[in-house]
Design goal:
Elements: E1 4-10, E2 28-35, H1 40-46, E3 54-57, E4 67-73, H2 74-88, H3 97-112, E5 117-121, H4 133-144, H5 162-165, H6 167-170, E6 173-174, H7 195-198, E7 201-203, E8 209-210, E9 215-220, E10 242-244, E11 250-252, E12 260-264, E13 267-271, E14 283-286, E15 292-294, E16 304-307, E17 310-314, E18 321-325, E19 331-341, E20 349-353, E21 360-364, E22 379-380, E23 389-399, E24 405-415, E25 420-426, E26 428-429, E27 445-449, E28 455-459, E29 464-466, E30 483-488, E31 495-500, E32 506-512, H8 513-523, E33 534-538, H9 539-544, H10 548-558, H11 563-578, H12 582-585, E34 598-602, H13 607-618, E35 622-625, H14 630-634, H15 654-666, E36 670-675, E37 682-688, H16 692-701, E38 706-708
Antiparallel strand pairs: 1-2, 1-5, 2-6, 3-4, 4-5, 7-9, 8-9, 9-10, 10-11, 12-13, 13-14, 14-15, 16-17, 17-18, 18-19, 19-20, 20-21, 22-23, 23-24, 24-25, 26-27, 27-28, 28-29, 30-31, 31-32, 33-34, 35-37, 36-37, 36-38
Length: about 700
């Protein structure tokens, strides 16, 4: 969604209970909107040096008590407009017809309004919480902008002269249709489009919705210049497109001839068909209001905005891309490649420069300036906003086992200042995902592993705290309750134990490396070519094998001892076993071997295993996540006890999120139970803490492995 300033006229003084219906005919009218900034004309209408606008609450927001917007009496608004007209008319000769038409439209909307108050809603433009002192300060700054003009003087003051010079940048977009912005602007299926859109346009592709502008990317059914009809899907590559909001605001018009339009870096990128194949597309960049910042006539090919202050385009060197400043177009970096920018993380630009066999890393701020000299690194991951730390990687030449030249990746930790906190000499720095910041463990500790698997513990300031003479197998280089499964010694008799990151103790378990390998082999039985016994069970046999007490116990525990909910779940479960819905169970009815009346079990599985499979199909008490969907986990609020759970560091990875959730639930007398899956996804559920052990035992009877994450 774009940030915007919105003018609304209302019958009553805006307050906490004022209604702002999005449909015409109610107590308010939409006047105008503008993306990214508050245009000068909006501020002028709201107040002057003798009549500053009034800060008021806006009931359109969840916080309807805090002062969020500005309001002005309509008689003052109209008086200021009449004064401005007297200073501006006759209109400047250099104004194009489109601007003159806009002026007349503004005059009509203001002069004919019968409302009593004008509201300026600019909450999305202020990057602070409504009830914060920072928000109040920014709102006051906007209010005091009106001190720059006095409507009792003759002639335009200097602060208003840009209205005459560059009106298209300071008027705003005026239409009563902006009333739609009093509700969330969302994409509709094309069947529900208004007639003006549905009868003349189609989506550029399925679900062609641009979130940066709340606009559809559409193609006209008839070519705007030639009148030709829209060709088949395979011939639409160069057909003109447009960007238009659901309420009719065109940001890119099809008549402009662009074959592509999308937003990035706070701008609209516009592409035109190649003049010659392989040459590159003529392109330009607009602001979010549709005004050209880099017109196509500037000659840049394949141009697009990376941030509000940096654009990329095809390099004049013939390879890679050039980075240039916006809007000044100063050349910042030449011939770079692999450009990355994730505004949801640390917002830095990452790119590579130099020969691909020996690239150097560029780490740039939002203006394209180096954060520090990062040229020795092959890659620098995302920085942690609190600690300022990131994982850095270098490539070191070495000789492989065959005596041939190779290279080895070494990792370390670097501070945002450029200081190397942990030297780049380790195989792995503990973190959530490959591009996550280093994981900060309790006590402000960082964990690294040598190329021999030895754990090394550092402080966040780079002090080596522990370097024990133990090693950790790759499969177990993840922490459980701040402990690592490690081994001391060499060979089959190496002693297994748990290494504590908290106090650096190594507690032996009494088992050896040989015992560990044997257990691991047993865990993966059947995967090494050994035959696994498979048995068939008919649905009739399954129904006869029902264990009512077992099912009742599971239903009760999943429903947190709520008898009514447990009874309902139990009945749904039994119904599913008796008459399963293939879609609910994920069965492919078109498969040749599909037979809902015949099921297969193997190894330690039994009839209860099949009952469990049917429970998963109907119960809503489980959550399942992709192994790397930490953001999805952070948004979980529907599991019992998670309605007030907040985890704001998903970059730390799934394991950290599970630990955080388990601790939160434990304080509420609940336990987080993790269930084994047959793929790389994670499945969890919540039971009462006192039921966790019994719940896991019941699942074990079905051959289902589960564990309480708080006790992992």
């Amino acid at each position: 969604m774009p940030n915007y300033a919105l003018l609304l006229a209302h019958d009553e003084h805006p307050g906490p209970t004022t209604e702002w219906p999005a449909e015409p005919g109610g107590p308010c009218d939409g006047w105008a909107e503008w993306f990214s900034t508050t245009p000068l004309l909006f501020s002028f209408l709201m107040g002057d040096a003798r009549h500053l606008p009034e800060p008021v609450p806006c009931s359109a927001y969840q916080d309807n008590e805090s002062l969020a917007s500005l309001a002005a009496p309509m008689d003052q608004v109209k008086a200021r407009w009449q004064w401005l007209k007297a200073q501006m008319e006759p209109l400047p000769a250099h104004w194009p017809d489109s601007v003159r038409k806009n002026w007349q439209q503004i005059d009509t909307i203001i002069s004919q309004s019968r409302r009593h108050w004008l509201l300026l809603d600019c909450a999305t433009l202020i990057p602070h919480e409504l009830d914060s002192s920072e928000y109040a300060a920014d709102l006051q700054t906007l209010r005091e902008r009106c001190l720059q003009w006095d409507c009792g003087a003759d002639g335009l003051p200097e602060a208003l002269q840009v209205l005459e010079q560059h009106p298209q940048l300071h008027f705003g977009w005026w239409s009563h249709s902006v009333l739609a912005r009093t509700e969330v602007i969302e994409r509709d299926n094309d069947d529900d489009w208004p007639a003006w859109l549905k009868d003349n346009y189609v989506e550029r592709y399925h679900s062609a919705w641009d979130e940066g502008t709340d606009a559809y990317c559409v193609m006209p059914l008839k070519h705007p210049r030639t009148g030709e009809k829209l060709p088949g899907e395979n011939e639409r590559g160069n057909w003109p497109v447009g960007l238009v909001t659901p309420y009719g605001r065109w940001l890119v018009k099809p008549v402009e001839g662009a074959c592509g339009a999308y937003t990035s870096g706070g701008h609209i990128n516009v592409r035109y068909p190649e003049a010659r194949e392989g040459e590159g597309e003529k392109s330009g960049i607009k602001d979010l209001n549709g005004n050209w910042l880099v017109p196509p006539s500037a000659g840049y090919l394949n141009a697009y905005a990376i941030t509000p202050r940096v654009m990329a385009c095809q390099s004049a060197l013939g390879q890679g891309e050039d980075l240039r400043s916006l809007p000044g177009l100063e050349l910042l970096h030449e011939g770079v490649y692999n450009i990355l920018h994730n505004e949801e993380q640390d917002a830095f630009i990452r790119a590579l420069a130099g020969p691909q066999e020996a690239p150097r890393m560029l780490l740039l701020d939002l203006h394209g300036k180096p954060v520090f000299d990062s040229s020795r690194y092959e890659h620098v991951s995302d920085f942690n906003a609190k600690t300022g730390l990131a994982v850095a990687r270098i490539r070191v030449p070495c000789t492989d086992d065959n005596g041939e030249g190779s290279c080895r990746i070494h990792e370390g930790v670097v501070h945002i200042s450029g200081k190397e906190i942990i030297p780049c000499e380790y195989e792995l720095i503990e973190r959530g995902f490959s591009d996550s910041p280093p994981r900060v463990l309790p006590g402000g500790k960082l964990l690294a592993f040598t190329h021999q698997g030895q754990p090394r513990v550092y402080s966040t300031r780079g002090k080596l705290l522990a370097a024990p003479d133990i090693w950790c197998p790759p499969l177990h280089r993840d922490l459980r309750k701040n402990e690592l499964l490690c081994f001391m010694g060499e060979g089959d008799e190496a002693e297994m134990g748990m290494f504590s990151i908290k106090d650096f103790d190594f507690v032996r378990t009494g088992e050896t490396w040989q015992d560990y390998r044997a257990a691991l082999k047993g865990m993966f039985r059947g995967l090494d070519g050994q035959a696994v016994e498979t048995r068939s069970m008919t649905r009739k046999e399954l129904l006869e094998a029902e264990d009512h007490d077992w099912m009742q116990d599971l239903a009760r525990m999943l429903c947190l001892d709520n008898a009514d909910e447990a009874a309902e779940l139990l009945q749904q479960w039994r119904d599913c076993v008796a008459d399963p819905d293939p879609a609910e169970l994920g069965w492919d009815e078109n498969a040749e071997e599909f037979d809902p009346e015949l099921m297969q079990i193997s190894g330690d599985e039994n009839a209860l295993t099949l009952y469990w499979v049917h429970l998963l199909a109907v119960a809503t008490q489980f959550a399942r996540f992709d192994w790397k969907d930490a953001d999805g986990m952070a948004d979980t609020r529907w599991l019992p006890g998670t309605d007030d759970w907040h985890w704001d560091t998903p970059a730390d990875g799934m394991e950290a999120g599970l630990e955080h959730m388990a601790e939160h639930l434990a304080a509420r007398g609940l336990a987080l139970v993790r269930l084994a899956t047959d793929d790389d996804s994670l499945r969890i559920t919540v039971v009462r803490a006192g039921d966790a052990e019994a719940f896991i035992e019941r699942l074990a009877q079905a051959g289902i492995r589960a564990w309480s994450h708080a006790c992992a």
